[in-house]
Write a structure and sequence with these properties.
Oligomer: single chain
Shape: elongated
Radius of gyration: 17 Å
Structural class: mainly alpha
Number of domains: 1
Largest sheet: none
Length: 199
């Protein structure tokens, strides 16, 4: 009975853990995104770095919480912060939906199977396409906003790089990289954190 109570989403300990890992996730994601200030193509580099680091963060969160809803909450919080900084409002709905899907996948492996944990993180990571969606259905306003913030030359370069095929390819590559980074995260978790009693 005690174990069940400890592993419910309403447990203060669980919520604190989710909050800590969500903060780390957002920090790495934000730091990676900031590389885009230098050049639009650097967003790919930042996404790669943050995706790898967050694979470790998310696998540690799974080990520390083992509860249905952790990724749903993380998705809701991170997406809300993204919208608050001016990104597409639909990001919240997409992140929550993918967070819930990730929770279902990870729960199916009882929070301990490497493959389901990695697949869950890969699915969750797909929410990253959300902020770019206005580029396809309202490109004029989207690029104008970028131009206002970063300058016309930056916006022109952004439009040239972020074509539909490139974005779709990046989403697929991001999912694969997320899966691999989660495998790395599970390996690090098993080799170091579990020995230290952290996980």
């Amino acid at each position: 009975m005690t174990t069940v109570a400890r592993n419910t989403i309403t447990s203060p300990r669980i919520l604190i853990n989710i909050g800590v890992f969500t903060a780390l996730y957002f920090l790495f994601m934000f730091a990676g995104g900031m590389l885009g200030i230098f050049h639009p193509a650097m967003m790919f580099v930042g996404g790669l770095i943050s995706g790898i680091l967050n694979g470790i963060v998310c696998m540690l969160m799974v080990a520390r919480t083992r509860v249905m809803g952790a990724f749903t909450v993380m998705g809701a919080v991170v997406a809300t912060l993204m919208v608050a900084t001016g990104h597409f409002w639909g990001t919240i709905l997409i992140a929550i939906a993918l967070g819930f899907a990730a929770d279902l996948i990870i729960r199916s492996g009882n929070y301990t199977r490497t493959m389901t944990n990695a697949l869950g993180y890969a699915v969750f990571s797909l929410w990253g396409i959300s902020p770019f969606l206005p580029l396809f259905f309202n490109s004029g306003a989207y690029l104008a906003d970028i131009g206002n913030q970063m300058g016309a030359e930056y916006a022109t370069t952004f439009e040239r790089i972020f074509t539909a095929p490139v974005v779709c390819g990046w989403v697929l590559l991001s999912a694969i990289l997320a899966f691999c980074s989660a495998l790395l995260g599970m390996r690090i978790l098993q080799r170091h954190f579990e020995r230290a009693g952290v996980a």
